[in-house]
């Protein structure tokens, strides 16, 4: 796993195949989602349940790929020194809509347990800034997450 993490950081200096680049982007996105989960230092049952679903819908991955990705992203997230490591790859490869979907997934994770922790809020806001999204886009994604959370 540490080798994969090292590959992720070296990716900026080497030419990667399309498959390797996709894996690095998925790792970056999953690591950002885990940053939200771990912002309050624990993963609730609700967060553990929705995380695989969010990864499959946001990144278009199979459920089998998601399990390995979560394991790799956990190591990556724990060893990261800043959000920039992840957001740089996202900025280089995601369009605005993909960035918005990622922020929406982060908001959904934050609200899934019925309580928005201030650290989760700060993490999402900081990530949104690093992804160069407008404040109005951040708020729009938050409102969508709240609305979908309240539906039975």
Structure description:
With 152 residues, this protein is mainly α. It has one domain (2-150): TerB-like, CATH 1.10.3680.10. The protein has helices at 2-10, 18-37, 45-59, 63-79, 84-93, 96-111, 118-130, 135-150. The chain is globular and about 45 Å long.
The helix count comes to 8
What is the percentage of strand-forming residues? Answer: under 5%
Helix content: over 70%
Sheet of most strands: none
The CATH superfamily is known as: TerB-like
Shape by Cα distribution? globular
The first-level CATH class is given as Mainly Alpha
The name CATH uses for the topology is TerB-like
**SSE run:** HHHHHHHH
Task: For the record, give the distance between the C-alpha atoms at the N and C termini, rounded to a whole number.
Answer: 39 Å
The tally of beta strands, per DSSP, is 0
Instruction: Report low-confidence residues grouped into runs of 5 or more.
Output: none
Q: Mean of the pLDDT scores? A: 84
What is the total domain count? 1
Rg computed from alpha carbons, rounded to a whole number of angstroms:
15 Å
CATH architecture: Orthogonal Bundle
Q: Helices and strands: which structural class?
A: mainly alpha
Which helices and strands occur, and which strands form pairs?
Blueprint: H1 2-10, H2 18-37, H3 45-59, H4 63-79, H5 84-93, H6 96-111, H7 118-130, H8 135-150
């Amino acid at each position: 796993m540490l080798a994969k993490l090292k590959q992720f950081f070296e990716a900026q200096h080497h030419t990667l195949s399309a498959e390797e680049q996709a894996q690095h982007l998925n790792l970056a996105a999953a690591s950002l989602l885990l940053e939200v989960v771990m912002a309050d230092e624990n993963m609730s049952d609700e967060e553990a349940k929705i995380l695989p679903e969010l990864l499959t819908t946001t990144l278009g991955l199979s459920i089998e790929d998601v399990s390995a990705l979560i394991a790799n992203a956990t190591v990556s997230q724990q060893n990261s020194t800043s959000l920039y490591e992840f957001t740089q790859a996202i900025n280089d490869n995601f369009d605005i809509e993909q960035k918005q979907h990622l922020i929406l997934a982060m908001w959904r994770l934050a609200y899934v347990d019925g309580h928005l922790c201030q650290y989760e809020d700060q993490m999402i806001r900081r990530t949104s800034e690093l992804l160069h999204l407008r404040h109005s886009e951040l708020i729009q994604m938050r409102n969508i997450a709240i609305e979908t959370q309240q539906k039975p």
